[in-house]
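We store chain and fold; thus.
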Amino acid sequence: MLPILLLLILLLSTVNCQSGIQVIKYKIPFSFLVSRTIVWGDTAASSTAVDLYSVVTKNCGTQMCFVAVYRKSTIYQIFINQQNNCGTAPNCIGHSESEYEYSLVFVNTGTQGCTNSAAIINNLAVSTKLPVCPQFWYSYVRPNGRVWCYILVNKLMTVPQTWTKSNNYCWNMYGAQLNAFQTDQERQQFLAVIKPMKFLSRWMFLGATRNCGPNTGNCGQKYQFTWIAGTSTNNVLANNYGDPRWWDAGNCLTVMTEEKNMYDDVE
C-alpha cells in the first residue's frame, strides 16, 4: 500500500506545492527514467525497513527527483535526477515500459513558493528527452539509458595506422575514442550495421588493449583485454570472440569484418 504522504499527493490535482517543494504529476519518458539513479524502491538497496517520508525529504528537498508508479499504483520507486552507472540489460530499474504508468516529479522551488506549473512541465519535456546523435552517426541506447553514438570511418590513409594513431584520429577529428560494447545486444547491433558495408581493410580497430608486460608481441591468452576507461565496463565482451587461429600475440583488439566478425589481436 502506498504510504500516506504519496497517497495524499496522488489524490490531489496535477500540481501540489508545499514548503518550497512543488509536486507535479507528469509521466517522465521511460527512456529517460531508466537512466536515473534509484534511491528507494524494490530494486534499490534501501527498499526494506525505511521511513519513506525521510527518504523523500532528504533526497527531494534540494534537487529534482521522481516517484515512478507501476502496475496500477501497487509498485513505486524514487529516483534522483542523476545518471546511473548500471550495466544490466535490458534496463537498470527492474521494470518494463508496459508496467510503467506515470510519475510524480518533486521540484525544489526554494523561497519562490509555487511557480508556473505549465513552465515547469515544458522544461521537463525538454530536459527529459534523449539526446540525438549527430548526422551520419549511429546510436544505441545502453541499459543505463545513455545514448551511445559511434561513427564508421572508411577512408584510405596514406600511412598504415596503428591502434594508437587510430584512437588519436578519432579524438582529434571527432572528440571520440575507438568503439566498445557494454552488452552483447549492442555488439550485435554494431555488427548488423557494418555487415552490408565494404571496407578498405578487413581489420577494424576496437577500443581495447591489453598489457602483456615483458611479453609484448607474444601475449598469449592469459592476458585479458580491457576497454578504454569510460567506454565500457564489460571486459568479457573484449575477450569472448577471439579467433583461435590468430588469438595469441598482439596487444590491440580488432574485429575482422570478413571473418564472421571474430576478433584478432594485433600489435
Notes: The CA atoms of residues 208 and 227 lie 4 Å apart.
